[in-house]
Design goal:
Elements: H1 5-10, E1 16-23, E2 32-42, H2 64-68, H3 70-78, E3 84-95, E4 116-124, H4 129-143, E5 149-158, E6 162-169, H5 172-181, H6 183-194, E7 198-213
Antiparallel strand pairs: 1-2, 1-5, 3-7, 4-6, 4-7, 5-6
């Protein structure tokens, strides 16, 4: 993880980057998964995704050397890493990360109703850490069996304090049903507002464009895009 910082910083085509640890069990977990890591990059130049330079969203292969740089590409090959990537188009959202609107100005709502990915991240106030982690397990245990759920991963920039979750759903309706009609999750949302859990937060929805590689031996989005 630390070794990747410099090559990503030197890549001028990347406007924002984060190297993130992962929690166990595919969601928020106070215990890290030492075998899985996440890389988030923001790059508006879709042409770098393949060697032809076309902005074709239906890409069948991905050139990791062009996307992440030669060093990271070499590292993954040398250590025979399992790599899974999802290309995303931000469509809705609000909030900031490190004081920046990393995906630019986005509408809060659109008419898009297809398969949807969601990224939520927050910096948790130190005095609210206990309340936050007290309520995480109840929600995390239900997401895996929620109707329309496809995949999720809990990611963190700083252990315990700067946390995020990324999930993919069959459509917006099933995602909103879980987020706003499931009692435990609704209660957590209320508490975050009433008790001011976060000093900074961001919520973004994406249209998944393409997926590459595998996660635990499979591509969860195969045949869905």
């Amino acid at each position: 993880m630390a070794l990747f910082r410099l090559p990503l910083m030197m890549n001028k085509k990347i406007s924002f980057r984060k190297l993130l640890g992962c929690g166990k069990n595919g969601t928020f977990d106070i215990h890290p998964d030492w075998n899985q890591w996440a890389v988030l990059i923001v790059n508006g130049e879709w042409s770098m995704m393949n060697e032809t330079g076309s902005n074709n969203y239906k890409l069948k292969t991905i050139n990791y050397k062009l996307l992440y740089g030669s060093f990271i590409n070499w590292w993954w090959k040398f250590f025979n890493c399992e790599v899974y990537s999802i290309m995303l188009e931000p469509i809705e959202g609000h909030g900031s990360w490190d004081g920046k609107k990393i995906f630019g100005e986005l509408p809060k709502q659109t008419n898009y109703e297809g398969i949807i990915a969601v990224l939520t991240r927050a910096t948790i106030r130190l005095k609210r850490l206990r309340s936050f982690w007290k309520h995480v397990d109840g929600v995390a245990s239900q997401i895996q069996t929620a109707p329309g759920f496809i995949i999720s991963v809990g990611i963190g920039e700083v252990p315990l304090i700067k946390q995020a979750t990324f999930s993919v759903w069959e459509n917006k309706e099933v995602m909103k049903t879980f987020a706003y009609k499931m009692q435990q999750h609704t209660e957590v949302i209320r508490k975050t507002r009433d008790e001011h859990w976060y000093s900074e937060e961001m919520f973004v929805r994406f249209k998944p464009i393409a997926s590459f590689g595998s996660l635990n031996g499979n591509d969860p989005l195969k045949g869905k895009l």
